[in-house]
Design goal:
Strand content: 15-25%
Protein name: N-acetyltransferase DgcN
Shape: globular
Order of helices and strands: EHEHEHEHEEHEHHEHEHEHEHH
Organism: Sphingomonas agrestis
Strand order of the largest sheet: 7-8-6-9-10-11
InterPro entries: DgcN-like, DgcN-like_C, DgcN-like_N, P-loop_NTPase
Structural class: alpha/beta
Number of helices: 12
Largest sheet: 6 strands, parallel
């Protein structure tokens, strides 16, 4: 486990989606977050006390979490400088970027000198096996999306917590840097060699016979040219009996690719079902989750209602309105026909 409490890094960020790791920790592990570190040119905030590196250390932070995501997951000079400052102040450093902290000679030397640790969250397990798609016992749900960064992790966590509130056995299975930091473990599936993606998910959510549920965090989108391979491997490895589609109705284009439109929601549902059926022939969609954070409550509810009417599936914003309707659909066997028909 990465030592808590945390000082959450925003740095020079101006993209609200790009700080999703810091935001996720602030939302789901608030008791472990003492403050946020950001420069004057950063207009974003998590609503936490703003602190310098020295102030964070004085407040008891044990780890600086570089909770930002950039294209390619690179460690720029500013990140290395700030990580070095945290080590000098006596804090460990954690990062979910593709470039590893341990591969930075300056940081590795400082960590050794100060007897501190560098945590590279995107390190996949070394013993992953190739997937086989054989039928396995247990209940599994996977979140999928029209694009990357549309709320799949938030939806998966919301569903997990709601199931647990109903007295059901439910386990969140993290597949990305933010989810792994929140859960304390998982498989960073976008850092896994392609041949082992489906096998990594089979290992993350193995067969179970306790009638409990594995709620698997989705990644990317089948319609995103950069990340569709990861999404495909997840669908095959999850062997899910249920999918929940996630979508940001305010997004103008695929993330990172201006000019490429988002897919039609109905087409996206059908293609995800078609892909998932390779290993789970009876898979069904049990709901749609929208990120309506940019809308006022009335507009958000109206958008959810229109989407629900159009596709015949329960539709909600999991953070604003909860997920009870989706759980009712999931747990009611009679709903299967409705979900399958609505997606076609």
């Amino acid at each position: 486990m990465i030592p808590a409490p945390y000082l959450l890094y925003l740095g020079h960020s101006t993209d609200s989606v790009g700080i999703k790791t810091s935001r996720g920790l602030a939302a789901f592990r608030p008791g472990d977050c003492v403050g946020e570190f950001r420069y004057d040119d950063c207009p974003l905030t998590l609503g936490l006390p703003r602190m310098s590196i020295a102030e964070g250390a004085a407040a008891g932070a044990k780890t600086l979490v570089l909770g930002i995501a950039n294209s390619g997951g690179t460690l720029g000079r500013d990140l290395v400088d700030d990580a070095a400052a945290a080590l000098e102040a006596g804090m460990n450093v954690a990062s979910g970027l593709h470039q590893r902290l341990r591969d930075q000679p300056r940081l590795a030397a400082l960590a050794k000198e100060k007897n501190l640790q560098l945590f590279d969250v995107r390190d996949p397990p070394a013993d992953l096996k190739v997937g086989n798609g054989y039928k396995r016992a247990g209940h599994r749900l996977l979140t999928v999306g029209t694009d990357c960064s549309v709320g799949k992790m938030y939806t998966t966590l919301a569903l997990t917590q709601a199931m647990q509130a109903r007295g059901l056995q439910a386990d969140f299975r993290a597949t990305g840097q933010t989810g792994i930091l929140i859960a304390g473990g998982g498989v960073p599936i976008d850092a896994v060699v392609a041949d082992f993606i489906s096998g990594g998910i089979e290992q993350l959510a193995p067969a179970r016979d306790d009638e409990g549920w594995d709620l698997i965090e989705g990644q990317g989108s089948l319609f995103h040219p950069s990340f569709a391979g990861v999404s495909t491997g997840l669908l095959h490895g999850a062997q899910a009996e249920a999918l929940v589609m996630c979508h940001d109705p305010n997004r103008l284009h695929m993330r990172g690719i201006p000019g490429r439109a988002l897919p039609d929601l109905g087409e996206c549902i059908e293609i995800n079902l078609l892909t998932a059926r390779l290993t789970s022939p009876e898979v069904r969609v049990v709901g749609i989750c929208l990120n309506t954070s940019a809308m006022d409550p009335a507009e958000a509810r109206a958008t959810c209602a229109r989407t629900e009417d159009r596709y015949g599936l329960p539709c909600t914003d999991p953070i604003a309105f909860g997920v009870d309707a989706i759980l009712d659909e999931l747990l009611c066997p009679a709903s299967s026909a409705r979900s399958t028909t609505a997606s076609r």
